[in-house]
C-alpha cells in the first residue's frame, strides 16, 4: 500500500511538479549588464504531456536573453510539433541547442531500474535512429537558434558577444570535440560550452580551452533521490555531487575552474515515469559581473 502510494506520488504528482531554479553566475566583466539564460533540458516530450507543455509555455514570461536546450527534447515520432509549439515565443529569442541520444532513438520498454547498475549508452549501439531529430533541429534552426552539435559560433545576445561551442551527445559517441577545439576567445563577453551528457572527458576539454560556463543535462538529477543521500546515479562519469545544479568543475577550488550547470531536466522516459525528491525543472541563470 505504501509503495503504491509512493509510486503514485512520484509518477503523477512530483513528475508534474515543475520547479524554476535560479542561480547567479559571476562570469561577466565588471560593469557588464546581466545576461539571463534560460536552460531547459530532457523534456522527453510525448504529445500527451499537456502539463509539461503548459508549464513550458509559461517560461516566456521570464524574458530570457538566451535560451539553451541541452537535448533529449522528444520521446515520440509526433512530438516535434508539440515541442516547438510549447516553446512558442521563446523561439523568437536567441537560442542554442544540442541533441541528446533520446532525440534520435525512440524509447523502449525496459526495466526502469536498470540504470542503477549500467548506463544506457551501450543499448543505443544496436538501435537505428528512428525519431525525427532532423525535423526537430530544423524547427529550432529555422527560428534562428544555433545548432551547436559539434559546432562553434559567435552569437549576439543583447549587447553581448557570446562565443558558443557545443558537441553532439558523447553518451552515444557522436561528440567530435576536434571540430570545435581551440582556445576560447578572451575578447568575447562570455564563453559558453554546451553538451547533453556531462562526461568528464568532454568537460575537461572545454575547461582546457577556456570556456567558463558549461551547460549540460542528461542526468535527470539522478531522477530518484533518497532523503539525506542525494542521487543514486548520474548515468555518466561525473560524481553524484555534480548530478544537478551549479558547481565549479571539477571542484578543486581553483578560481580558474569553469562553472558547470547540470539541469535535472523537465521530463522522464515514458517507460520510467517517476521522479522522487528530484522535481522536474528549468533554470534561469543570471550571468553577472565577477571579480576581475
Ligand atoms: Fe534525458
What's the helix and strand layout?
Layout: H1 2-13, E1 19-28, E2 35-40, H2 50-58, E3 66-69, H3 80-87, E4 95-97, H4 101-104, H5 121-124, H6 133-142, E5 146-147, E6 151-157, E7 160-166, E8 190-194, H7 200-208, E9 213-216, E10 225-226, E11 230-231, E12 245-248, E13 259-262, E14 281-289
Parallel strand pairs: 1-14, 2-3, 3-4, 4-5, 7-8, 8-9, 9-13
Antiparallel strand pairs: 2-14, 6-7, 10-11, 12-13
Helix pairs in contact: 2-3, 3-6
Fe (ii) ion (FE2) binds at residues 42, 44, 72, 100, 102, 218, 220, 265.
Labels describing this entry:
292 residues; alpha/beta; Purple Acid Phosphatase, chain A, domain 2; six-stranded mixed sheet; 7 helices; 19% helix; binds fe (ii) ion
3D architecture notes:
With 292 residues, this protein is α/β, with parallel strands linked by helices. It has a single domain (2-108, 120-289), classed as Metallo-dependent phosphatases (Purple Acid Phosphatase, chain A, domain 2), CATH 3.60.21.10. It is built from 7 helices and 14 strands. The strands form 3 sheets. The protein has a 6-stranded mixed beta sheet with strand order 1-14-2-3-4-5, covered by helices on one side. It has a 6-stranded mixed beta sheet with strand order 6-7-8-9-13-12, covered by helices on one side. The chain has a two-stranded antiparallel sheet with strand order 10-11. β2 (35-40), α2 and β3 form a beta-alpha-beta unit. α3 (80-87) packs parallel to α6 (133-142). The longest helix is centred in the N-terminal third of the chain and has 12 residues, at 2-13. It is globular and about 55 Å long. The termini are far apart. The relative contact order is 0.22. Bound molecules: fe (ii) ion. The site of fe (ii) ion (FE2) has 8 residues, from loops.
Amino acid at each position: 500500500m505504501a509503495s503504491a502510494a509512493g509510486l503514485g506520488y512520484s509518477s503523477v504528482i512530483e513528475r508534474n511538479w515543475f520547479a524554476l531554479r535560479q542561480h547567479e553566475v559571476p562570469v561577466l566583466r565588471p560593469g557588464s549588464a546581466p545576461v539571463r539564460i534560460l536552460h531547459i533540458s530532457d523534456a522527453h516530450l510525448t504529445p500527451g504531456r499537456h502539463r509539461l507543455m503548459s508549464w513550458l509555455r509559461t517560461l516566456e514570461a521570464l524574458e530570457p536573453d538566451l535560451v539553451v536546450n541541452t537535448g533529449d527534447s522528444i520521446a515520440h515520432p509526433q512530438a516535434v510539433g508539440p515541442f516547438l509549439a510549447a516553446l512558442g515565443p521563446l523561439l523568437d529569442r536567441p537560442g542554442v541547442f544540442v541533441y541528446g541520444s533520446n532525440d534520435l532513438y525512440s524509447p523502449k520498454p525496459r526495466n526502469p531500474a536498470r540504470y542503477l547498475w549500467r548506463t544506457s549508452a551501450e543499448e543505443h549501439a544496436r538501435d537505428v535512429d528512428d525519431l525525427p531529430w532532423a525535423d526537430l533541429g530544423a524547427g529550432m534552426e529555422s527560428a534562428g537558434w544555433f545548432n551547436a552539435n559539434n559546432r562553434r559560433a559567435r552569437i549576439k545576445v543583447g549587447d553581448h558577444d557570446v562565443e558558443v561551442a557545443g558537441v553532439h551527445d558523447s553518451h552515444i559517441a557522436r561528440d567530435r570535440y576536434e571540430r570545435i577545439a581551440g582556445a576560447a576567445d578572451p575578447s568575447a563577453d562570455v564563453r559558453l560550452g554546451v553538451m547533453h551528457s556531462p562526461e568528464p572527458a568532454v568537460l575537461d576539454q572545454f575547461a582546457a580551452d577556456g570556456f567558463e560556463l558549461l551547460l549540460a543535462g542528461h542526468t535527470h538529477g539522478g531522477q530518484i533521490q533518497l532523503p539525506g543521500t542525494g542521487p543514486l546515479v548520474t548515468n555518466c562519469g561525473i560524481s553524484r555531487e555534480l548530478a544537478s545544479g551549479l558547481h565549479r568543475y571539477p571542484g578543486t577550488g581553483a578560481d580558474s575552474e569553469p562553472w558547470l550547470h547540470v539541469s535535472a531536466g523537465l521530463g522522464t522516459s515514458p517507460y520510467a515515469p517517476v521522479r522522487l525528491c528530484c522535481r522536474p525543472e528549468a533554470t534561469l541563470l543570471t550571468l553577472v559581473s565577477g571579480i576581475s
